[in-house]
Amino acid sequence: MKKNKPNIPFNEFFLHYIWRTKQIINQQLITTDGKPVEIVHFGHYNEDSGPDFLHGVVKIENTTWVGNIEIHVLSSDWEKHNHQHDNAYDNVILHVVYFHDKEIQQDGRKVPCLSLYNKIPKVLIKRYHELIKSKKWIPCAGVLQNVDPSVFNLWKDRLLLEKLKEKEALINRLLHKYTYDWETCFYILLARYFGGKVNDIPFEALADRTSLDLVRKNADDPMMIQALFFGQSGLLDNECTHPYSVSLKSNYRFLQTKYRLTPLQPVVWKFSKLRPPNFPTIRLAEFSTLHKLGSSLFQALSEADNLKSMHDLIQTKPDEYWSDHYVFNTFAKVVHKNITNDFRNHLLINAFLPLIFVFAKTYGQDHKIDWILKIFGEMKKENNKIIRQWETSGMSVHSALDSQALLFLYSDYCSYKHCLSCRIGHQIMKQSQLK
To answer: Does the pLDDT value for residue 285 go beyond 80?
Structure first.
């Protein structure tokens, strides 16, 4: 056993990567007590609790062992992680460590130990260290142009599906709350994302207390629907004497009495630091005149053949009052106010497509997954700082399928320097071996 612990510039996940990709100097391996060892099968990587690799096969001297393999930086980490008190580790046939600093006993027997000290190619350690210590906007920014574009192109579908899964918790919460009424869940999500990042919570609360059934009952009267939403929002201005505002207030008083409605407090809405077209009053004017809001919009979108058909379904027609107002009782420059295709894509990306993804998984409609990817492929790419940085670094971005995958790659991999879980990172590590 070595007495002086060396400087170790990596963590356990690096050793997982080395073992998973079989990148050890596999010549004359011996256990820490001097017995020859041959790795017949490295095992299957276990991302759940328990030993790191399951169903491995190793030959120590003349005996072949079948069981699990545990990996640590230091052999003493076994006790640091309290494995000695966990029966799940009784079947570990090999303890793989970088530096051996302590003999380990488990279930009354000595656990065979293999040290990888001086068994990992130094160029791999060097490249990993460079990635982890990088100060660039993404760790691989300086070498990304050397990676074959096919690496990302073959991975982007899976990245996008991973991104869609991120909203599963929110969607499942809504499905349980509204007893798997998919139209109501879509209505709630649609409202949430009409509010943007600033007013998402008030918009969701508004939809929650203004049921879709109530919208359907009044769907044949557009003015009544506008009165319903503006009244429930708490944003109706009692001082405003314009006929439009007076009509909204009169209609809402009728609805409030008939259905015993309780409006939100006006203070929940945020206007500051928003561009006027994103004011909650304008978004409400659009949301309350949304075509098919009181019918089966989720079903209609799910049956659309292409993106254009979906855009045609997401139409709004704000009242003329809003052509020269951004808030009640204050005139503004005359501007035609209506949602853009970019905003329609925002609603589809954040509200509809994650929900139809969960719907497809729930009912085993695998063909819908391909349809979802097709719709993303038809959408225009996002144009934001992160996407522009990817393009500057050499990435080709053609559609929302590319941009959404890259946004997820940045937020969930690059930002946390999870390079060893990234296919691009794997390719860079492979290239390091060729130098």
So the answer is: yes
Instruction: Kindly give, in sequence order, each residue whose CB lies less than 8 Å from that of residue 49, ignoring residues fewer than 6 positions away.
Output: 88
Q: Is 82 exposed, middle or buried (0-12, 13-18, 19+ CB in 10 A)?
A: exposed
DSSP bridge partners of 72? 97
- Which of 351, 378, 405 terminates a domain? The answer is 378
Whether the per-residue pLDDT at 6 is higher than 90: the answer is no
Question: How many domains does the chain contain in total?
Answer: 2
Residue 1 reports pLDDT greater than 70: no
Range of the domain at 183: 178-378
Q: For residue 160, tell me if it sits in a domain.
A: no
Same domain, 75 and 217: no
Q: Is residue 401 part of a domain?
A: no
In a domain, 220, yes or no: yes
Q: Which of 13-27, 325-339, 379-393 has the highest mean pLDDT?
A: 379-393
0.70 surpassed by pTM: yes
What percent of the chain has a predicted confidence (pLDDT) above 90? 90
What pLDDT does 65 receive? 97
Report the b/e string of 388-426 with b at 16+ CB within 10 A.
ebbbebebebebbbbbbbbbbbbebbbeebebbebbbbb
Token pair in block for residue 362: 């729930």
| Polymer length in residues for the chain | 435
User: For the CA atoms of 287, 289, 290, 294, what is the dihedral angle to 10 degrees?
Assistant: 100
Whether 280 and 351 map to the same domain: the answer is: yes
Give the pairing type, strands 92-99 and 63-74: parallel
